[in-house]
Amino acid sequence: MPKTLTVATWNVNSIRVRLPHVLDWLERHEPDILCLQETKVPDADFPFEAFEQLGYVASVYGQKGYNGVAILSFEPQQQVRYGLPDDAPDDQRRFLLATICGVTVASVYVPNGEAVTSPKFAYKLSFLERLTHFLTSHLTPEIPFLLCGDYNIAPADIDLYDPESNRETVMFHSREHAFLARWRQWGLRDSVREQHPDEPGLYSWWDYRTGGFARNRGWRIDHIWATPVLADACLSASIDRAERGRERPSDHAPVVATFRLPSKTSG
């Protein structure tokens, strides 16, 4: 087992479209684990073989054209959970959990919410409530656990380009922030912000429609939050902004963190 674990999360906004980018990125960076969101393909159409050629095994939980999450890893995955316990059979596919090298890893794609007045915002809050219930009832903060993915929430003013104009809007609303507060109280910690406590302009998503990347009008909504045993052992955490500047990119950049594994998991 490795003594360190490098974990990345990336909303690829269609694995079909972005597959060459993802494969190239994996070849260059070789993370131990990559969590994907918005794969937008049913499980049967996921490109397993392309990742197997690079040495990765994959667990996937997808659907045609929308949503979809995956976890790729060099090491075997155990205790894989597809969806939250109270998901309806036809529910959106947004949550996947696996244990790898003794670390429990979740890939989550939180709904965007569209607008505060939209039914989609109510769905987002409902999803966050169900996710929070799962964390607090099925896991404990004493275990090595990483909540990776697109939370669709910027935690604080420093995490978006114009907090005043966006206050109490979707992705920066007090009702969303209340869930992050509950996660912190439970024990989760923000890997990137702990490594870069005062760094402005540290964004992971830039809107296609407004030319956000060229103007650096970004938001930090993609995260790797860790329980204390891993947060205390975080060696580095960053956002690969350069990936957003490629031709035909996802509107999100990969987030990457490296942890020193507890001795009982590293072997």
Automatic annotation (TrEMBL):
Q: What residues does the Endonuclease/exonuclease/phosphatase domain cover?
A: 8-252
The active-site annotation reads 109, 150 (proton donor/acceptor), 252 (proton acceptor)
Which residues carry the site feature described as Transition state stabilizer?
Answer: 152
Q: What's a Gene Ontology MF term here?
A: endonuclease activity
Site residues, Interaction with DNA substrate: 252
For this protein, the record's Gene3D superfamilies field holds: Endonuclease/exonuclease/phosphatase
Q: How is the cofactor bound?
A: Probably binds two magnesium or manganese ions per subunit.
UniProt site (Important for catalytic activity): 222
Arranged from A to Z, the UniProt key words for this protein are: Hydrolase, Magnesium, Manganese, Metal-binding
Q: Where along the chain is Mg(2+) bound?
A: 11, 38, 150, 152, 251-252
Output the GO biological process annotations, alphabetical, semicolon-separated: DNA repair
Cofactor field: Mg(2+); Mn(2+)
Keyword Hydrolase recorded: yes
- Is the keyword Ligase in the record? no
Quote the InterPro entries the UniProt record gives.
AP_endonuc_1, AP_endonuclease_F1_BS, Endo/exonu/phosph_ase_sf, Endo/exonuclease/phosphatase, ExoIII-like
Chain segments annotated as transmembrane = none
**Pfam families documented for this protein:** Exo_endo_phos (PF03372)
The catalytic activity of this protein is classed by the Enzyme Commission as 3.1.11.2
What class does this enzyme belong to in the EC scheme? hydrolase
Q: Tell me the superkingdom of the source.
A: Bacteria
The UniProt entry's sequence similarity note says: Belongs to the DNA repair enzymes AP/ExoA family.
Q: Which NCBIfam families match?
A: exoDNase_III, xth
Q: What name does this protein carry?
A: Exodeoxyribonuclease III
